[in-house]
Amino acid sequence: MAERRVTVASVVGLHARPAARLAKAAAAAKPLTVTIRKGDGPEVAAASVLGLMTLGAMHGDEVVLAAEGEGAEAVLDDLAALVAAQADHE
Q1: For residue range 27-79, what is the model confidence (pLDDT) as tens digits?
Q2: Exposure string (b/e) for 21-44, b if CB count within 10 Å is 16 or more?
Q3: Annotated catalytic, 15?
Q4: CB-based contact 18:57 (threshold 8 Å)
Q5: Distances in Å between the alpha carbon of 9 and those of 22, 31, 41, 72?
Q6: Element spanning 3, H or E
Q7: Helical H runs in 1-90?
Q8: Which CATH number does 2-84 carry?
């Protein structure tokens, strides 16, 4: 299973717009299933806005994205870039 550790850059954390952007991108990665967790917490589906918001991932927190299958490395690189980007103004 491929993983990426990334620090949340958004000043509001993975809430509202940043969560929606990440969920949309993760959903587009089908047939891969991408999960995300904060610290040693439970994994949630990265394609779920509600799941992302329940993580409670705030600015500066480290999260771990994971996926398995063909193309997982590239998908995780793209999703990690979204989490690491401070795009709060969009």
Answers
A1: 999 999 999 999 999 999 999 999 999 999 999 999 999 999 999 999 999 99
A2: bbbebbeebeebebbbbbeeeeeb
A3: yes
A4: no
A5: 13, 27, 19, 22
A6: strand 2-7
A7: 17-27, 49-54, 72-84
A8: 3.30.1340.10
Beta bridge mates, 11: none
**DSSP single-letter state for residue 9:** -
Distance CA 48, CA 11 (A): 20
Domain ranges of the chain: 2-84
Pick the catalytic residue from 4, 8, 13, 15.
15
- Using CA atoms, how far apart are residues 22 and 17, in angstroms rounded to an integer? 9
Distance CA 83, CA 61 (A): 10
